[in-house]
Amino acid sequence: MRGKVVYVHDDPVLPSIGHYVMVSSSARNGVQVGDEISFIDNSTGREESDPAPPVIAGVGQVVRVTQFAATTIIIRQTQPTIREGMPVRLTGKMP
């Protein structure tokens, strides 16, 4: 499952641990409460020919799922770059 950040609650300058973020993934994509979502930072200004992989900016845990989007809370952060439009990927499933 892949998606993107569609909304950061309260529009903080630098969202960090404890902030809520809505992502475009939904129940239709198999997302459920408790799943982990990784925020992918691909804005380092790299060129297309650069073989370096994107960096994981942080991890969020899904706390609410609707048919349109999922709400996550940021539980880990390694880069201060979480923002609207950034790609996300499902990296952990609840059993």
Q: Please count the helical segments.
A: 0
Kindly report the spatial arrangement of strands forming the biggest sheet. 1-2-5-4-3-6
Mean of all residue-level pLDDT scores: 88
Instruction: Write down the overall geometry.
Output: globular
Number of strands: 6
In whole angstroms, how far apart are the ends? 16 Å
- In percent, how much strand structure appears in the residues? 35-45%
Characterize the largest beta sheet: strand count, sense, and whether it forms a barrel: 6 strands, antiparallel, barrel
Which residues form runs of ≥5 with pLDDT under 50? none
User: What letter string, H or E per element, gives the SSE order?
Assistant: EEEEEE
The amount of helix comes to under 10%
Radius of gyration: 13 Å
Helix and strand composition category:
mainly beta
Walk me through what this model shows.
Helix content is 0%, strand content 44%. The mean pLDDT is 88. The two termini are 16 Å apart. The radius of gyration is 13 Å and the shape is globular. A 6-stranded antiparallel β-barrel has the order 1-2-5-4-3-6. It is mainly β and 95 residues long.
Brief overview, please?
The protein has 95 residues and is an all-beta fold.
